[in-house]
UniProtKB/TrEMBL annotation:
GO terms for molecular function: hydrolase activity. Keywords: Hydrolase. This is Gamma-glutamyl-gamma-aminobutyrate hydrolase family protein. It comes from the Bacteria. It comes from Streptomyces albidoflavus. CDD domains: GATase1_2.
Length: 235
């Protein structure tokens, strides 16, 4: 019997969320993320923030990992002072997701970073971020759209070979690339839109939000890599 690969997706940790008659702390994730994993053929497992030392044990049980979008990375993580336009820190989430990324890279687990997840991948490998740029959102709380052009020969270009419009909502981006990373897509204004390392491990960061669109190809790339990775581990 075919068993779909298990894809872990990191989540928010919020102090106050309301549903039904309840208002209380919650771990949550927009439904687009697990929906995209499922549409691409994977099984989605949500990963709420936990103690960083437990990240390796968590990732070892997965076939693939998605580090989701969310709040700004705390600038101290990449040796910068906070710009006034940078959002409040999410320290527990930063620590947990950086540990997840480190574990995935060490274990060889296929990894997709989305928006904040791409930025954290860059920071995990020693890179830095631009703390504010304009023109990459719609109105407040509304996703914008812009074109992204793949770099020929990249992992990203292998799954999306043509220039395409993507849903975007971010005000930060990659500045200095982390160790071993290369740019695999850019926007018309030069903003780095995708990054990836060399080597056989399937690792990709995208600055936009594929879970807010209908194109499943990026997630299908992760799910297919995860299926192959899970098969190798089982064998």
């Amino acid at each position: 019997m075919h068993v779909p690969p298990l894809i872990g997706v990191s989540t928010y940790l919020e102090d106050e969320v309301s549903w039904g008659v309840w208002t209380m702390p919650a771990a949550l994730l927009p439904v687009g993320y697990p929906g995209l994993v499922q549409a691409a053929g994977g099984l989605a497992a949500l990963l709420p923030p936990d103690a960083p030392e437990r990240a390796t044990a968590a990732v070892a049980r997965l076939d693939g990992l998605v580090v989701a979008g969310g709040p700004d990375v705390e600038p101290v993580r990449y040796g910068a002072e906070r710009d006034p336009r940078t959002g409040p820190p999410a320290r527990a989430r930063d620590a947990w997701e950086l540990a997840l990324i480190d574990a995935a890279l060490a274990l060889g687990t296929p990894l997709l970073g989305i928006c904040r997840g791409m930025q954290l991948l860059n920071v995990a490998l020693g890179g830095t971020l631009v703390q504010h740029l304009d023109g990459h959102t719609g109105a407040t709380g509304v996703f914008g759209s812009h074109l992204v052009k793949p770099v020929p020969g990249s992992r990203y270009a292998a799954v999306v070979p043509e220039e395409s419009a993507v849903p975007a909502y971010h005000h930060q981006c990659v500045a200095e690339l982390g160790r071993g990373l290369a740019v695999s897509a850019q926007a018309d204004d030069g903003t780095v839109e995708a990054i990836e390392p060399a080597g056989e491990q399937w690792v990709l960061g995208v600055q936009w939000h594929p879970e807010m669109g209908e194109d499943t190809r990026v997630m299908r790339g992760l799910v297919e890599a995860a299926a192959a990775w899970g098969g190798r581990r089982a064998g």
